[in-house]
Amino acid sequence: xxxxxxxxxxxxxxxxxxxxxxxxxxxxxxxxxxxxxxxxxxxxxxxxxxxxxxxxxxxxxxxxxxxxxxxxxxxxxxxxxxxxxxxxxxxxxxxxxxxxxxxxxxxxxxxxxxxxxxxxxxxxxxxxxxxxxxxxxxxxxxxxxxxxxxxxxxxxxxxxxxxxxxxxxxxxxxxxxxxxxxxxxxxxxxxxxxxxxxxxxxxxxxxxxxxxxxxxxxxxxxxxxxxxxxxxxxxxxxxxxxxxxxxxxxxxxxxxxxxxxxxxxxxxxxxxxxxxxxxxxxxxxxxxxxxxxxxxxxxxxxxxxxxxxxxxxxxxxxxxxxxxxxxxxxxxxxxxxxxxxxxxxxxxxxxxxxxxxxxxxxxxxxxxxxxxxxxxxxxxxxxxxxxxxxxxxxxxxxxxxxxxxxxxxxxxxxxxxxxxxx
Length: 422
Ligand SMILES: Cc1ncc(COP(=O)(O)O)c(C=O)c1O
What we know:
By secondary structure, the protein is of the alpha/beta class. It has helices at residues 27-34, 43-57, 72-80, 90-98, 115-124, 134-145, 186-195, 216-231, 257-268, 283-286, 320-324, and strands at residues 13-14, 20-22, 25-26, 38-42, 63-65, 84-87, 106-108, 128-131, 152-158, 180-181, 201-206, 237-239, 276-278, 290-302, 306-311, 342-347, 356-363, 372-376, 396-401, 404-409. It has two domains: 5-42 and 288-413, Lyase, Ornithine Decarboxylase, Chain A, domain 1 (Beta Barrel); 44-284, Alanine racemase (TIM Barrel, Alpha-Beta Barrel), CATH 3.20.20.10. The termini are far apart. The structure holds pyridoxal-5'-phosphate (PLP). Residues 65, 67-68, 86, 109, 208, 211-212, 241-244, 280-284 line the site of pyridoxal-5'-phosphate.
């Protein structure tokens, strides 16, 4: 198997000796300087994805779903590139505000927002709150009566569309914990309740059908349902969610940002001029720009069965294979030109047999202890979902650009592991 450059960050180069650089910095130099496991983001790639999204959907119409990858540097970068920020919890809102993103550039999501989260968002003055349940409407009313400013809100609707993705990240079907059901009338009841209310300002409706969706027809179907509902409401704003999938392996084919935009433009062209149509991409902004660099710690051939290659991270820095059966490629950043003729199972260092990063990986021949191993397309829902399981330290995150590396999140230390203990 050869290397597919389209899975690597856009600034990636391979020299005559087969050594990989990203952002003009050799991967082995980064590993030496910052240690492994290490998340490396191509800053130019992040910025160009943001720019492409803005060019495709228009200024102030793109809301970066920060759950995909959030730290202060990423919040600032998205804000600098003109994106709004979707925050799904008070914690994500806190990070965005700490990063200097103005509250009116943030949108609050969540199927179970607490009084505290709602009060913070209302007081700070977020751009809008995406309301998810009747309980939440009651909570907003109570908070407003207690003095919090009336928020602009959108109503999250489940349009009853099934998508081709993993069940755990499918969200637009009738049987969902998210939003108001369109089919059973709940959506209409919520719209009426909010329209009649003086404690909130209903500005639009919202849907998000799922994540890592590769079939644009799924988006088209949802957009058509939402547009026909929207047409009767006389509201100024419609949000069509995120969910654009990306290629993780050499076999995957994903639609481009422009193809995604075309589908939405087609579906919304009948709306009155001046209608604001938002999208909320997360994965498609950050996935390809990020890679994870590991060091191989053990190579264990089991005669007649398989070879296990263990790296110094695992399910604590990438839980997607365990949660969704997600697949990845494995590259040796020092031997990018070698034919990947060997097969092995890439596993982590955790005390779980299921701690598998790649079930059946093609790897360069004769991988040995101390080699570097890189998994591409880990920029989304990797660091964001990282844990301390087995008290493994969370990796550092670096941004690389123009031959320089910038540490944006430091590696955890053993002291961090006990800082919450009392
Ligand atoms: C409401 C909402 N918007 C946007 C997103 C981003 O999805 P993706 O990262 O697949 O683009 C999510 C992800 O779960 C979401 O729940």
